[in-house]
Amino acid sequence: MTTRTIFADRRLHWAAGAILAIATVTLLVLAIFPWGALRSTIEGRLRDRFGQATMIGSIERLDTFSFDPTIRIRNVRIPQVEWAGRGDLARVEQADVTFHALPLLIGRFRPDSIRIRGMHLALVRAADKRENWSSGKGGGSGGSGARLTGLTVEDSTISYRDAKADRSFTAALSADTSRGLRLSGTGIVRGSPVKIAFTGTAIEGLGNRPWPFTAKIDGPALGMEARGTMDAPLDTHGMTLDLTARASDLKMLDGVIEAGLFGTQPVRLKAHVRRESPDWIITGLSGTIGGSDLTGRLDVKKRDGRTNLAGDVAFGTLNFDDLSTNSGLAKGRALERAIGPRLIPATRINIGKIDRTDGTITVSAKRIVDSSGPSTLTSLAGKVTMDRQLLLFSPLRIGLREGAITGSIRVDQRGGRPEPLVTIDLALRNSNVAAIAGNISAVEGRVDGRARLTGTGDTIREAVGRSSGKIGLFARDGSLPVKIAAMIGFDAGRALTADERKRAALRCMAIGLDVRNGVGRADPLLIDTSESQSRGEGTVSFPSEALAIRLTGAPKRDTVLRLPGSVSVTGSIRAPEIVVPREVKSAGNILKAIGRAISGKHEPVAGDANCAALSARVLGR
Asked: Tell me, what DSSP letter sits at residue 263?
């Protein structure tokens, strides 16, 4: 069949004519369609969307022939869902909507301009994240940008109650060609009153050009201001803004941003923010938390129902007290008064509620200070990685006044564990006694250490209290007063007569704890000086950090007056108590020692310990 034959075929002519006729009729129907006939259909769609019977008083077409028709909708009512309380979710007295009819052929509704009068919305989010405006949990992600060319809103209000974030507000909403879009009202965030305001320029004539806006929250405990532009009017999926914030603490700020933040000292922050739905890019972050200053950046990406974080936070100066509220600090001081000072912190590490967040953030602090005096810690650097409830601090470096603590901490709460499994692997390198115990001038020496523990608990203190593993501490190449060295060797003669200024060499000190279910058994415990040697046995119990140690000692040379027996070390790691048994310091025991000295009967003296072997043993090298 030739081309001429094909075009001459009457069947083809009939088919083309039929298609053209159908298309023409379809367009004519769209142009003159009585949209009020769809009232019942629209009510059904809204019922399916909100789960409530929706009532529409009337729908009428205001023009007669157009592919951009205008319809008037009157007396719309959507009852409130039962769990959200009484009243209506939405009421609209009248709405005139102009829309493009042709996109309806492919299932898309594209409004062009909207004029609303008497709209009242009552939005509610429950503690379990149910939203009365959403058909499921979790809710929407903001406006998609309808690309409106006109918007007028009169006599309208919005109320919002959020039990999950502990916030609420009631505001008046208006929009016109002269003043643009405006929303203003009052509310409460975490029990603190606030005023809210939002302004945007008139959208008429903007088309798809950027739309400037300003949003403010102002109250005695919270203040935020965002100034920027949306990529198009009402398009919250794409916007750029500069944000400033102040709050009584990070938890108050979290009442707005919902990032899982915690209580701190007062906060002041600013940042540049870019929204590219569904992601957020935060740059130029800077500010203060109490007296601690910080800078940073953060990328927030949403994929498959999960949030992925990538960024870094750098503190110039960091005071850990700034990361707690005044009430939290007071509780900590009260607990310390009740149970005594503790070395292991009670930092909470349960991440059971962080089930949809992953990512990597680097954290650093150039200088660490302490509210109570000079800080043992001087700096901090590390990387925090979260992968489906597996939290890893690695590498981790904590600077001391001399030396550093390095290693990793692993928090594993995968598989629905009620408490995390915590693995601690830390090493202390090239430090000294003063850097660890404070400015104790009496004892000097280089110190290394190692801790490898695994246990479960909601806090680091609880996890160590249920842990098993090894702890080792080794000091070397130091010195101490001769008097103390003599006491270690139970040499009462030299302890009484030695020169206060004279010092003995600290050859080494080795402490190894074999930890089982939170109880560390000393193996070994030895102090070796140029004048004496002391050995110990006993336990250190966690989380109480209680000491139950028995020490014996001997001098390294014959002495005039050597006491027999032992001493006990009790109390806690931070507050040890030395108990000398009554029989050791009794007059009879002293007279016996004097008698042995007069008769020339001397007890065996101690030799030098193998410090290298002890170091390898307690440090696992």
From this structure: -
Element of type H or E holding 258:
none
Please report, as a single letter, which amino acid is at residue 360: T
**What are the CA-CA distances from residue 232 to residues 49, 99, 141, 212, 313 (Å)?**
27, 18, 16, 9, 32
Q: Cα(525)–Cα(513) distance, rounded to whole angstroms?
A: 9
| CA nearest neighbour of 380 among 403, 360, 364 | 364
pTM of the model: 0.81
- With residue 333 as reference, give the H or E element that holds it: helix 326-339
Inter-CA distances, 562 with 215, 422, 553, Å: 81, 47, 10
Q: Which residues pair with 473 in a beta bridge?
A: 449, 511
Q: Residue 93 has which token pair?
A: 């007295």
- The answer to whether the beta carbons of residues 621 and 615 sit under 8 Å apart is yes
Which residue's structure tokens are 């009365």? 132
Strands (E), 236-305: 238-247, 267-276, 279-289, 292-303
**Phi, psi dihedral angles at 48 (to 5 degrees):** -65, -35
- Among 189, 186, 185, 137, which residue's Cα sits nearest to residue 165? 189
pLDDT tens track for 407-421: 999 999 999 899 999
Q: Which two tokens stand for residue 610?
A: 């193998």
Give the alpha-carbon dihedral of 4, 8, 11, 13, to 10 degrees: 110
